[in-house]
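User: For a benchmark we're assembling, each entry needs the component sequences followed by a predicted structure for the full assembly. Here are entry 17's components. Please fill in the structure.
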Amino acid sequence: MLSTRAELNCGFAAALALAAAAALLRVTPAEAALGAPYASIASDQTTFSASIKATPHGGYTVHELTLPSGTVVREYSAVNGTVFAVAWNGPAKPNLSQLLGNYFADFITTAKTTPGGRNHLSLSRSDLVIQAGGHMRAFFGRAFLVGAIPAGVSSDELR
Amino acid sequence: MNCARVLPMQAKRMLLIATLLVGLGACGGKSTLSSGGSGGGSNVTGSAANVATAVVNAGPSGDVNTLFTTVTVCAPGSKSNCQTIDNIEIDTGSSGLRILASALTANLPIQTDSNGNSLAECTQFVSSYSWGPVALADVTIASETASSLPVQVIGAANFASVPAACAATGSEEDTIQAFGANGILGVATEAQDCGAACASSSTFGFYYACSSATNCVQTILGTASQLQNPVTYFATDNNGVIIELPSVSGTGAESLTGALVFGIDTESNNASSGTATLLPVQVGTGYFTVSLSGTFYDQSFLDTGSNGYYFTDSSLTECADAGAAGFYCPTSTTSFTAIVCGYEDSGNCTGAPQESISFSIGDADTLFSENAAYTVFPTLGGSFPTGETVDLGLPFFFGRNVYEAFENKSTSKGSGPYYAF
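Assistant: Structure for entry 17:
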């Protein structure tokens, strides 16, 4: 048996730096959902191995991706093609780096600066709102670009 | 992203820590609040084999409304390779014991799969993840022992680096400072952290098999090898827990001492007969319905791991100060009455057993700034992402004995999963 205190094997420690560098390179996907063009949703579908169903509403379209874990991701695209909101709900968190794209950094910063924030996240800026809650086996959250919400659409619909 | 927002909170946190240190020096760390008796529904059980002390204090990183206990871990079968660790957060929102590697000196064997690969977990929390190997330990809490229990060692040195897919789920919490505890004792209603789903699919991103420092791949893992609610591994008193905390008057207290009692209707000190209504929760999610201000919130839950009441109420002002970001700051303390309903399909309380509760939300910014030595805040609350949830966090447990029965376990009152208080 291996031990937590002893080294796992000789190659492990030596490879840590390489792994860290590789992880950095992969953190930001080439295409991302929130704020990106509608075409990025197809990229998410592939990454998430998800089934997809699109439903038009007044002023926007909801693209509902069902992941193999059972988690449901909803992406909201405006008539101009921009994904202005994303939401998730289910037993496992989705790849939030992929889903939030450039705004994943805001998620991380908020998580680190929220007092006791492991089980709750709330960022409310004039341009960006990110909120998350839940607990193990039941996670949910959403993010939207305030200025990109189509006229007449309430943020209450984005979940 | 914005230093102007971050710095005031850090300054406030430092002030809080400094004040706490001064307070400790002045009174020898003895600042426990006693129950005060009538009306709160709380009666903290005294010392017994199935009773662990549960305390709200600042913990290792100056948090508020966080409940801690102490556990002893040994290598399986060992009487000497052991360690007692305090500042272990009690969390009804997760299942499994997880210990920060930097708090661990006992030598625990890492588990491997049939190919000899080390098993590891990317534990998902709402805004963060914790990464590290799955090990085995004999875990004793009070006088109850869980033998050969799968546990996670978070942030283990000389272990495989965090996989990219894990890092993509949130903020890293692999140090004591980031985690705010030396570990976490997950006593949720579910026996495993993932369960049957992770035994048949590797897509959840919870469990990994690591063949080298840089090659960890998501793996399926049988339920017996997954992290388990430790209480379910006890030889007796394993069907549930009772969390007993005294009531807190006024704006708060420096600390609070109560009990984590193991078992329901298994000993003379854990009878459910005195509690009111049995409130079933949904299998898997722990959800029930809360009726508040005319709305049914059918994804509501109880969670000692949440530090406040979290719900949506447009009449409450959100705090402007970064030091209280995410919390409510109403101009005056605001009272709410709600109905907690047992889980049922309709989600609108029809025919469901129910219990009335009341709570108040205060101005978090003022509470923090005027009571820097406090770690116990009964009126702390914040906004929530969707209009479907009331998260009854740790303040809900103040002044109550909350019975939590596990899934597939029976008690005199009925079968779990349920809550009663």
